[in-house]
Design brief:
GO terms for molecular function: transmembrane transporter activity. The chain crosses the membrane at residues 59-77, 89-108, 114-134, 141-163, 183-206, 232-254, 301-320. The chain has 326 residues and is mostly helical. The protein has helices at residues 2-24, 32-39, 45-80, 92-107, 111-133, 140-164, 167-178, 186-205, 207-213, 217-222, 227-249, 255-267, 274-294, 303-325. The longest helix is centred in the first third of the chain and has 36 residues, at 45-80.
């Protein structure tokens, strides 16, 4: 517990440090002192406009979306008892992508329609995976196997939709699929932060029963836990967390997959570890967005490109570490 608390504090300090750097760098550089003065309303009008109106909404959106992906990944990995059981792998983000592409390519909708399509597509994919995996209860390994199959089918649908799109819609769709935090404003930050503030207490309230579920369904039932009811509540909460992240920034890859595993290795704690995973997700996405903005400046990359590259390195390290451990 003390180690988890210390890791959580260290990750929060990392988030604050990276946030100050992100707020102070760009075409108009501002010193860390100037950033802090602007945040408390004691900067000059120019720095306050740049910090508060232009850069702070993007930073807050990155923190909230990263935390939502991290917590969602921790829940899914706990339910499936598999480090690959994240929304990236078991079909949710593929469903969100298909829903968004239908709105972009077939309907020609704007931001609201795209966000609605992403949420509905992701929720439909999650419901399909749950129902297909249900055989007198939903076992973790079946959720992963069915999720991978649904992911493959939805990837084929995504390819078909992109193939029939015109060049303009194809560019819009490709940018959305990669995941980006460009041009994110206070509306995105408010939606992501409010949803996170509403759902994290639910995750914490279910934490003890989630730990019991990890012991196995029979043990959980013998201890009085309503297995399917708790599992369904956890899936709904995890889907909602991933949905808000996908709606605000697109289906950003690997954050939900890597954050819980990295947090678990740092805390050395068993169980879903939702709060350290959320803090790790926030730090990963914010740092990745800073790299995406500054690595090839003045060209800005979609943050999904950076997280995908880091995710590939993470998987190589994970496979190498497991081979060494074996």
């Amino acid at each position: 517990m003390k180690r988890s608390f210390a890791v959580g504090l260290a990750l929060l300090a990392t988030c604050v440090t990276v946030a100050v750097v992100a707020l102070g760098t760009g075409d108009y550089p501002i010193s860390p002192t100037g950033v802090v003065r602007s945040l408390v309303g004691q900067g000059n009008p120019a720095t306050e406009y740049i910090v508060l109106d232009l850069r702070l909404p993007r930073v807050l959106t990155a923190l909230a979306v990263g935390a939502a992906f991290g917590a969602s990944g921790a829940i899914f990995q706990s339910l499936t008892r598999n480090p690959l059981g994240s929304p990236d792998v078991i079909g949710f983000t593929a469903g969100a992508s298909v829903g968004a592409l239908i709105m972009i390519i077939l309907v020609g909708g704007g931001l609201l329609e795209i966000a609605s399509g992403a949420v509905l597509g992701g929720a439909a994919a999650a419901a399909a995976v749950y129902l297909l995996a249900y055989r007198r209860g939903s076992q973790g390994y079946r959720l992963v196997i069915i999720g991978v199959a649904v992911q493959a089918l939805l990837t084929a649908v995504t390819t078909y939709l992109l193939a029939r799109a015109n060049i303009f819609d194809s560019q819009r769709a490709a940018l959305w699929i990669m995941g980006s935090l460009n041009a994110r404003g206070w509306a995105h930050a408010a939606v992501a932060s409010a949803t996170l503030a509403a759902l994290l207490p639910v995750v914490l309230a279910l934490h003890r029963r989630t730990l019991v579920l990890e012991m196995g369904d029979e043990t959980a039932r013998s201890l009085g836990v309503s297995v399917e009811r708790v599992r369904l509540a956890l899936i709904a909460t995890a889907v909602a967390l991933a949905a808000v992240g996908t709606t605000c920034a697109g289906p950003i890859a690997f954050v939900a997959l890597a954050a819980p595993q990295l947090a678990r290795r740092l805390t050395r704690a068993t169980g879903p570890n939702p709060l350290p995973s959320a803090a790790m997700g926030a730090a990963l996405l914010l740092a990745s967005d800073l790299v995406a903005q500054r690595a090839l400046a003045p060209t800005q990359l979609p943050v999904g490109v950076v997280t995908a590259a880091l995710g590939g390195l993470y998987l190589i390290w994970l496979l190498g570490w497991r081979r060494t451990a074996a």
